[in-house]
Amino acid sequence: MDSGTFFVQFVDPGYAYPALSFVVLGAFAQLASFFYLSALIFGGTRLATAFRRRRRLAAGATSAAGALFLGFAVKLSLAGSV
């Protein structure tokens, strides 16, 4: 879904300047995306640094992620047999 089809529902067709509404909504979406992605990038960088320094923590996190995926696989296999 592109932003044009999403924003249509928030724009009043009777408004004198509907293009302005699209620009404002698009600007807010871009601003929110910028802050969200910046937080992900900086948070990921800090996590990567922590995992590089603490090998045991990295190994534990990898094992936990593997166990989580194995649990999802078991749940999926059991749900398909019902």
Draw up the topology in text.
Elements: H1 3-7, H2 18-53, H3 55-80
Helix pairs in contact: 2-3
State mean pLDDT (0 to 100 scale). Answer: 87
List SSEs in N-to-C order: HHH
What does the main sheet amount to?
none
**What's the total count of β strands?**
0
Principal-axis shape: flat
Supply Rg.
Answer: 22 Å
The portion of residues forming beta strands comes to under 5%
Beginning-to-end CA distance, first to last residue: 34 Å
Uncertain regions spanning at least 5 consecutive residues: none
Number of helical segments with 4 or more residues: 3
Structural class estimated from helices and strands: mainly alpha
Percent helix, as a range, is over 70%
Short description:
Helix content is 82%, strand content 0%. The chain is mainly α.
Description:
The longest helix is centred in the middle third of the chain and has 36 residues. The mean pLDDT is 87. It contains 3 helices and no strands. The chain is an all-alpha fold and 82 residues long. Helix 2 packs across helix 3.
What attributes characterize this protein structure?
mainly alpha, flat, 82 residues
